[in-house]
Amino acid sequence: MNWMRLELPARPENAALVRVAVGALASQLDFTLADIEEIRVAVSEAFSNAVLHAYPLGTPGSDGTAGGRGGEETGTVTVEGRLLGEVLEVSVADRGAGIADLDKARQPGYSTRPDRMGLGFVFMESFMDEVSVRTAPGSGTRVVMRKRAGGVRETGSSTGVAGAAGGR
Amino acid sequence: MDLKSEKSGKALVVRVEGELDLSTAAEFRVQVDADLDRLGARDLVLDFTRVTFVDSSGLGAILGRYKRVTEGGGRVALCGVSDHVRRLLEISGVMRVLLTFPSVPEALRALGPMQTAVGGERS
Question: How far is A132 from B99, CA to CA, in rounded Å?
Fold first, then answer.
């Protein structure tokens, strides 16, 4: 079984690094290029959520790493990828704020931040076969996503959040 | 990400190159808004032919520009989007509000009639 593990600070510029790594691991299975694009988006959303929500400005992670964004120190995100037969499993974990209301957080168009569109989980769920979230306020969030290579293409339905809040 | 802006009629044409994600969305927002002001453009044409990645942060930045431009009576056209980006637009519902065109010249032609019909019949 091939696998990878990346530990990196929750900084916006690291989303690209995580996409490259997970995309390259995924390409070892029989995914189409379109599949790999979808995986890259799903992983980007999970990592971006950790940057935006897990370690808001000034709050340290429960692993002792300092909080803050921009050029400052921030908490750590652990990204793991595993090839389980024809299935790619990706885990994105942080030790940050956790999600207070997970059901709400997973609703299309919902965000705790008025400047966001609330599409992160929408894309994760649209593009991966399975998305599970474990979270506890104050100790962190772990998103585990799976996608089978050579699988049947699902067509995503429109959630119509464009008219709602968000977008700067 | 790299942005190149030029004015064509009343439209600002922005050629976007690279990835539009959390780390580049803010730069996109700031620079496109500044160019809209500086060049006094009403409409916005975004050329995405060389865009290699978009996620929800990128979509948020596009939709933010859409709100700004339409509030000023302008229109927004998105050109040269890949199948992948098109799918994101469809899933998010953004496709229903944005005009998309295969290329910049086609977008400018479509926006053209309204540019000359100042005070025209637009409801």
Answer: 35
Q: How far is A53 from A49, CA to CA, in rounded Å?
A: 6
* Catalytic residue check, A49: yes
* Domain locations in chain B as residue ranges: 2-103
Say what the ipTM of the complex is.
0.87
In the sheet with B2-8, reading across from the earlier edge strand, the strands are B2-8, B11-20, B43-54, B76-79, B99-101
pLDDT by 10s per residue, chain B, length 123:
999 999 999 999 999 999 999 999 999 999 999 999 999 999 999 999 999 999 999 999 999 999 999 999 999 999 999 999 999 999 998 888 899 999 999 999 999 865 444 444 444
Catalytic residue among A14, A38, A40, A49: A49
Looking at the domain assignment, is residue A31 inside a domain?
yes
Whether B95 and A158 lie within 8 Å, measured CB to CB? yes
- Whether B93 sits inside 8 A of A163 (CB atoms) is yes
CATH number (1.20.1270.360, 3.40.47.10, 3.30.750.24, 3.40.50.2000) of B2-103 reads 3.30.750.24
Which residues of B fall within a CB distance of 8 Å from A18?
A: none
